[in-house]
Amino acid sequence: MSAKKAIFVTGGASGIGRAIALRFAREGWFVGLGDVDAAGMAETERLCGTGFAYSHVFDVRDRAAWDMALSAFATAAGGRIDVLANNAGVPLGGPLSDNTPDEIERCLDINLKGVLWGAQAVLPWLRQTAPGSALVNTASAAGIYGTGGAAVYSATKFAVRGLTESLDAEWAGFGITVASICPSFIETPLLDQVPNQGSNESIRQRVAAAGLELTNVDEVAQAVWAAVHGSRLHWVVGKTARKIAFAARWMPGQVRKQARSLSRPLGR
User: Fold this and answer.
1) Whether residue 153 lies in the annotated active site
2) What is the CATH number of the domain that holds 20?
3) Residues 58, 71: contact at Cβ < 8 Å?
């Protein structure tokens, strides 16, 4: 088994995934990238530097593909996987009544099933490198308090937080750290997408209209680094996320009122 620690990052072609990869590569870790975007992963590999990264094109919705991806990465990494950053995800906005069945199923399959499959597939590898190995799931501020106009997305992120708590209990005896990252809106290319098929307003436009701050991806990557080496279960990242977490705990009536006031239909 190689002495160099290894992390596998899904959604590694851009955004948070790329930032996580670069953060760990700077510390001398061997980085594995999983995504459907081969060109994006090639750029992340280039940024990580020669000898620091390995890419595998696969879809997180495919359970069998997870086994192949992790096995191939472990071989490239000298026989070990120390961390899985379960990060791949897609946005979905708009009123639930406007979301199509295909949109809902895609969001559920990537944001929730993909995280479940990843956790299930990586467990044997993390047990081999425990204690000190870790699973870090990317949740969201939308998983702290439900976001109007993003019901399905919020539901998946609440589920990721719940899964994290369950696996923390299940895997504690193995010496595996389990944590979730709950960032607010992040400055990534996802912001320029429309939230659903019926909208002509980008997510960035909606965030700006609501007066919400954007969090730099490097801050999220640093939180992942801290989560791998820390003991906290949920890591809230960014000013907006911290405000939501505080209000949801201490001023639930106020945050409920604000959520209602901001819940106009997207793209209208």
Assistant:
1) yes
2) 3.40.50.720
3) no
